[in-house]
């Protein structure tokens, strides 16, 4: 889950590399480094442990010679700690070759032993330096970087994106990918490589995705893509749908604050173009009606925050499409021999489209004959290309590690999917469909209302609770996955113990955690949708209040029944039962962000985490 960038062209590469790495730092920020070939044809390299700013400061003190060919890397540590020595790039061939890597080389130990026996001395603990040493050895044999690359990648096992340059071949950067992302940026007289389009979107919005087991070579005037056997590969360019300004803070104190504020737009953009004549019609799914009529089971697979969106999607698909739906954690799915077949639809959810656990689950499903559909926020990503169909969310770039606007966009996309499949199967009535469409169209405005009316209140609560050591979250029905997500957000960025529970489970064990002063968030379902469920949750509130808990309730406007039992009430607008999660999660996002800020923590780059998890 590292960030990589490559450049060849007429401009000084160092500035382009550093700017690209700044946009990729969400992928890892344990260390950073760059390598450039200068005008004299010599290779210069600098790498530093710590965030990108440490490298910037080092280069400001002693700049590398200018050059127009370069590669850069920002690391999330796997093999070896975050030290200068373990940072990328790694050098080989008497320091004339530099290589960077995203992923894990699973057979590195055997290769390292082979190289040591061949007289190679290693300077780091990484698996990456093994690839660099292999490439250096092959280059000495072939004298051609592309040919050497082809020989090396066919010996590697695991997940990798590799970029390399050699001072004997200035004006050339070669890359390869297997189970890890790599995208080409197509410029005029210059070309780019990156693990994400964010690496180069400031300079070009024309991009080309690299497929599985492919090698790319870029020069200022040409891009060549082949498979690992050397056969030419043709790919279609695509246009990036957002510009560089979308990935800038734009005056906000953090990317997370900006992205929370952008949620009304993220929901609106995900809905846009998918309502036709008062019904949900997803254009990307045209021609798949027979598939949807023929399936008898849906499995939604995802990890982390996306898995909680999946739990909401399960309710929507079952209610509107009337198909049994299950949610599976992607990293568990393929290891338990699940029962799937040609009538199973496996829906994967990934913001980046590169989540390795989820990608492997999709491949497993396809191998066993299931049909696959992905919900993704990133054009040109691997998971959509590996799936039979894709429903893109249109949240725009999400830079903060803790997901916010991508999450609400994922829920919105799953609501759309449930309605689309329900229409195709004839299982949702015209009246129910019309009501749902009205809810979808009103949803962005309701999210904006929560932000406008409750943000200051919730932030004030968080400020009062900055010393809290544990927070619990309770919910029922679609409130349960939101309780899980609220707890995850708090854990991710404030490092406070937090747990989400189904409220009905309280009496089966978790109530033992309740003691005087224990903060508990309770998501209260609307009494308009189920008076019984509402009464059950109010009863849960009474149970914990009787034991001294401090209760913060999230309830719809006008719900007076919660007032006698709540210490604080956060209001959300009236909405349909399946649409409430999009509104209820917003105060929990704000709470986590405000509490982490009150503790003086970096909400955008929490410790030990990275945005895109490209290792399994």
From TrEMBL:
Its EC number is 2.6.1.16. It catalyses: D-fructose 6-phosphate + L-glutamine = D-glucosamine 6-phosphate + L-glutamate. It is an enzyme of class 2 (transferase). Residues 2-221 form the Glutamine amidotransferase type-2 domain. Keywords: Aminotransferase, Cytoplasm, Glutamine amidotransferase, Repeat, Transferase. CDD domains: GFAT, SIS_GlmS_GlmD_1, SIS_GlmS_GlmD_2. It holds the Pfam family GATase_6. Gene3D superfamilies: Glucose-6-phosphate isomerase like protein, domain 1, Glutamine Phosphoribosylpyrophosphate, subunit 1, domain 1. Residues 288-427, 461-606 form the SIS domain. The active site is at residues 2, 611. Its main location: cytoplasm. One of its GO terms (molecular function) is glutamine-fructose-6-phosphate transaminase (isomerizing) activity. It is found in: Cytoplasm. Catalyzes the first step in hexosamine metabolism, converting fructose-6P into glucosamine-6P using glutamine as a nitrogen source. HAMAP family: GlmS. NCBIfam families: glmS (TIGR01135), PRK00331.1 (NF001484). Homodimer. This is Glutamine--fructose-6-phosphate aminotransferase [isomerizing]. It comes from Microbacterium capsulatum.
């Amino acid at each position: 889950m590292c960030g990589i960038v490559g450049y060849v062209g007429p401009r000084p590469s160092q500035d382009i590399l550093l700017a690209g790495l700044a946009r990729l730092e969400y992928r890892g920020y344990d260390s950073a480094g760059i390598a450039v070939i200068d005008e004299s044809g010599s290779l210069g390299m600098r790498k530093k442990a710590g965030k990108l700013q440490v490298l910037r400061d080092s280069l400001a003190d002693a700049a590398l010679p200018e050059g127009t060919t370069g590669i850069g890397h920002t690391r999330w540590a796997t093999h070896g700690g975050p030290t200068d020595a373990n940072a990328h790039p790694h050098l080989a061939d008497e320091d004339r070759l530099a290589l960077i890597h995203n992923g894990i080389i699973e057979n590195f130990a055997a290769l390292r032993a082979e190289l040591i026996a061949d007289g190679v001395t290693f300077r780091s603990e990484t698996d990456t330096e093994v690839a660099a040493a292999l490439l250096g050895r092959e280059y000495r044999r072939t004298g051609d970087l592309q040919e050497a690359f082809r020989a090396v990648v066919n010996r590697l096992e695991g997940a990798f994106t590799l970029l390399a340059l050699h001072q004997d071949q200035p004006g050339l950067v070669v890359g390869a990918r297997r189970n890890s992302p790599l995208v080409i940026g197509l410029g005029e007289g210059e070309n780019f490589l990156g693990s994400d389009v964010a690496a180069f979107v400031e300079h070009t919005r024309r991009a080309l995705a690299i497929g599985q087991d492919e090698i790319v070579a870029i020069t200022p005037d040409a891009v060549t893509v082949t498979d690992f056997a050397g056969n030419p590969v043709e790919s279609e360019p695509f246009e990036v749908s957002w510009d560089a300004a979308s990935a800038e803070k734009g005056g906000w104190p953090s990317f997370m604050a900006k992205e929370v504020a952008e949620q009304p737009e993220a929901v609106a953009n995900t809905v846009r173009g998918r309502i036709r004549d008062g019904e949900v019609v997803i254009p990307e799914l045209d021609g798949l009606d027979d598939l949807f009529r023929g399936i008898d089971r849906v499995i939604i697979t995802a990890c982390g925050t996306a898995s909680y969106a999946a739990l909401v999607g399960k309710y929507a698909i079952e209610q509107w499409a009337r198909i049994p739906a299950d949610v599976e954690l992607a990293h568990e799915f393929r290891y338990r021999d699940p029962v799937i077949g040609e009538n199973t639809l496996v829906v994967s959810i990934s913001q980046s489209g590169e989540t390795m656990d989820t990608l492997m689950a999709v491949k497993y499903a396809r191998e066993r004959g299931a049909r696959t559909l992905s919900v993704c926020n990133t054009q040109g990503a691997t998971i959509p290309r590996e799936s039979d169909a894709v429903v893109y969310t249109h949240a725009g770039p999400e830079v903060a590690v803790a997901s916010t606007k991508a999450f609400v966009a994922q829920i919105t996309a799953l609501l759309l999917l449930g309605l689309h499949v329900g229409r195709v199967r004839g299982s949702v009535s015209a009246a129910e469909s019309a009501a749902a469409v009205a809810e979808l169209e009103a949803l962005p405005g309701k999210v904006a209302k929560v932000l406008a009316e409750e943000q200051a209140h919730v932030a004030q609560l968080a400020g009062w609770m900055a010393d809290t050591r544990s927070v619990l979250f309770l919910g029922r029905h679609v409130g349960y996955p939101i309780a899980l997500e609220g707890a995850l957000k708090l854990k991710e960025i404030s490092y406070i113990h937090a747990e989400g529970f189904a409220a009905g489970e309280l009496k089966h064990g978790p109530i033992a955690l309740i003691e005087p002063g224990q903060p508990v968030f309770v998501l209260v379902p609307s009494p308009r949708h189920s008076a019984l469920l509402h009464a059950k949750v109010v009863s849960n509130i009474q149970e914990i209040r009787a034991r001294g808990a401090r209760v913060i309730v999230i309830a719809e406007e006008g719900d007076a029944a919660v007032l006698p039992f709540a210490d604080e009430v956060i209001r959300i607008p009236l909405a349909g039962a399946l649409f409430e999660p999009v509104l209820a999660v917003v105060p929990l996002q704000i709470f986590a962000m405000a509490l982490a800020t009150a503790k003086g923590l970096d909400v955008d780059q929490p410790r030990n985490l990275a945005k895109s998890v490209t290792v399994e």
